[in-house]
Amino acid sequence: MATAAKGVVLLDFWVSPFGQRCRIALAEKGVEYEYKEENLWDKSPLLLKANPVHKKIPVLIHEGNPICESLLIVQYIDEVWSNNPLLPSDPYERAQARFWADFVDKKVSECWTRLWKVKGEAQEEARKDMIEDLKLLEGELGDKQYFGGETFGFVDVAFVPLSAWFYTFETCGNFSVEKECPKLVAWAKRCMERESVSKSLHDPHKVYEYVCQLKKKLGVD
Amino acid sequence: MVSGGEVKLFGMWASPAVRRVEWALKLKGIKYEYVEEDISNKSGALVQYNPINKQVPVLLHNGKPIVESLVILEYIDEVWKHHPILPKDPYERAMARFWAAYSEDKCRDAVRRVFFAEGGERAKAIECLEETLRALDGELEGKEFFGGENIGFSDLVLGWMAFWLGVSEEVASFEVLDPKKFPWFTSWIDNFLQVPAIKENLPPRDKTVAFFHGYRRLHLAAPNC
């Protein structure tokens, strides 16, 4: 049942995995909101006012209050709308979930930033790091259905948007996620069976096309 | 002193990330055992409890390890609910976490760049650092602490700047803490360092300056390390 929440606006960019985290969280909670697509090369006055420090998407505006940084937005959503909790109730398990969500940002996203921008030895190192980090995540998943155990949770929300980028990682980095981390690929497929995920993520080939265009625009390659 | 099972903290005396955990434990009056780690020769226990990053701080609560200082702070606040560090309101919590993330994502990097910058790079690095101080100064306007009337989560996370930024200025010979440019931030430093749990829990200044002199020399001699 959709909750008609007063004044929920999401400033976002279609392919952003960080924005998608927020979309997935809102969908999991059944929160109705207004989606506003930003042009990152011509940011709106609303975005600049809502996030003056970083000037970045995503930004969630709820009852006039802006919340920035995707993982903070997801935690905010989880605290305001308490149905279908994303974080577990046990403090130790919550700490583990926060650690792994942070790991996705500090390690995987960071590796990706190196992988597509550099060549040669530096790229080889980024590829090795990426595979190592994905394997660590796969180890954490183990044989569980989701990172959250039997329920789709915080780490799943944090990581699943990057699964639409696996094809891009593989093509830029010249490796196979399926070969290195088959459990992660199976997990991503399971997540895609959830409407909140399938409606938020884009086709991996579309993501790759976007990155190719971005590379041309920035003169990388 | 509050008990709540066995609490152990693996740390390193000069580390700001470790201190912020100690400040939280002291504020809540939680009894704990402190274990000093030799970072150049990490113990089997540290590697066992933090196999991924192999870093301090590590909090061990009833034998279970929690790592990453910000994660540890939230854990402490959730287990020991008295003297709360994070506010109750979800929006205020999001703001507290925002400034904590700002400390880790922007401020640390900005200070590090000035600390290691040489020659022509220095001016640009100082400009970046001053931009972060301007943002913090703006956020503090009209407030004694980031948490309002009392110190909170953002104060504990940003607290390293109240001590270690001054140390960095001395070691790397630069000056950014100007009360005319950043009146609220420089006042906050004074306010923060007067809080008893903080004041009584800082590393010795001379020893810290000497340590970071060595750290800087080592890094500048071998920049790829």
From TrEMBL, chain A:
Superkingdom of the source species: Eukaryota
EC number: 2.5.1.18
GO biological process, one term: glutathione metabolic process
GO cellular component: cytoplasm
PROSITE patterns reported in the protein's UniProt record: GST_CTER, GST_NTER
Keyword tags: Transferase
Function: Conjugation of reduced glutathione to a wide number of exogenous and endogenous hydrophobic electrophiles.
Record protein name field: Probable glutathione S-transferase GSTU1
Native organism: Phoenix dactylifera
Gene that produces this protein: LOC103695843
TrEMBL record, chain B:
Catalytic activity: RX + glutathione = an S-substituted glutathione + a halide anion + H(+)
Keywords in alphabetical order: Cytoplasm, Transferase
Molecular functions per Gene Ontology: glutathione transferase activity
Domain (GST C-terminal) ranges: 89-210
Compartments (UniProt record): Cytoplasm, Cytosol
Top EC class of this enzyme: transferase
EC number assigned by the record: 2.5.1.18
Swiss-Prot/TrEMBL GO biological process terms: glutathione metabolic process
Cellular component GO terms, alphabetical: cytosol
Keyword Transferase: yes
Domain called GST N-terminal: residue spans: 5-84
A Pfam family that the UniProt record links to this protein: GST_C_2
Coiled coil (UniProt feature): none
Family indicated by similarity: Belongs to the GST superfamily.
Function, in words: Is involved in the conjugation of reduced glutathione to a wide number of exogenous and endogenous hydrophobic electrophiles.
Name of this chain's protein: Glutathione S-transferase
Organism listed in the record: Phoenix dactylifera (Date palm)
Lineage, highest ranks first: Eukaryota, Viridiplantae, Streptophyta, Embryophyta, Tracheophyta
Gene: LOC103709647
